Amino acid sequence: MAESSPKVTIPESFQFQVSSSDIAGQLTLIWELIKAPLIVPLLTLGVYICLAMSLMLFMERVYMGIVIILVKLFWKKPDKRYKWEPMQDDLESGNLNFPVVLVQIPMFNEREVYKLSIGAASNLSWPADRLVIQVLDDSTDPAIKQMVELECQRWASKGINIRYQIRENRTGYKAGALKEGLKRSYVKHCEYVCIFDADFQPEPDYLRRAIPYLIHNPDIALVQGRWRFGDCSCYSCMRVMM
């Protein structure tokens, strides 16, 4: 006959009763035990890090303040550092004292801003016979290409020397378009190049303010206008290196 395993019975008086209040008490005890050795050092470290970062920000502000004061006191404005004379209209020589300037506007599907940039370039205060505007359109949307071309034709009908150019590929993207534009035969006589992006809206007198720096300072190769946001951006004029 098989032996039966002994049975162990626990009297009801010794059964372990666990209540929710006991669990809460144990969790509270555990928290009290780990709070001081673990949480407090982490919080202390965080406070020191915040203090160090605040000190770094303060030192940076002080440094930038000193730099701004020194610039205001000792840094000469461009018209003081470089030779600059305003462009004068000469009745005897006509417009010959104005160099021929090529304005390049690279575009790519610029439906919203193409009229603004083309119009701004066409309204530049510069003799029409000494200005060549080149719209370099890499748009892939046929409808936009047609709109840009019609806008160029509209300004051309007003006597503006504006050219609409496209190419078969987008090699080099906008920089490639600018490079291809310089290969056109009708720009070989241009002495300076001015680059406006498709959303740029230069002031009418921009060329009259920028070109004299290049004319009177042979060691300067590029003049960049101030970067502004919203209604216009950064413009650049440079010498032509054919």
Instruction: Give unreliable regions as ranges.
Output: 13-18
Number of strand elements: 6
Gap between N and C termini: 114 Å
Give the helix/strand class. Answer: alpha/beta
Protein name: Glycosyltransferase 2-like domain-containing protein
Membrane topology: Multi-pass membrane protein
Keywords: Cell wall biogenesis/degradation, Glycosyltransferase, Golgi apparatus, Membrane, Transferase, Transmembrane, Transmembrane helix
Subcellular location: Golgi apparatus membrane
Quick recap:
The chain is 43% helix and 12% strand. The chain is an alpha/beta fold.
How would you describe this structure to a colleague?
It is found in: Golgi apparatus membrane. Its main location: Golgi. With 242 residues, the chain is of the alpha/beta class. It has six helices and six strands; from the N terminus they run ααβαβαβαβαββ. Helices cover 43% and strands 12% of the residues. The radius of gyration is 37 Å and the shape is elongated.
Core attributes:
242 residues; alpha/beta; 6 helices; glycosyltransferase; Glyco_trans_2-like
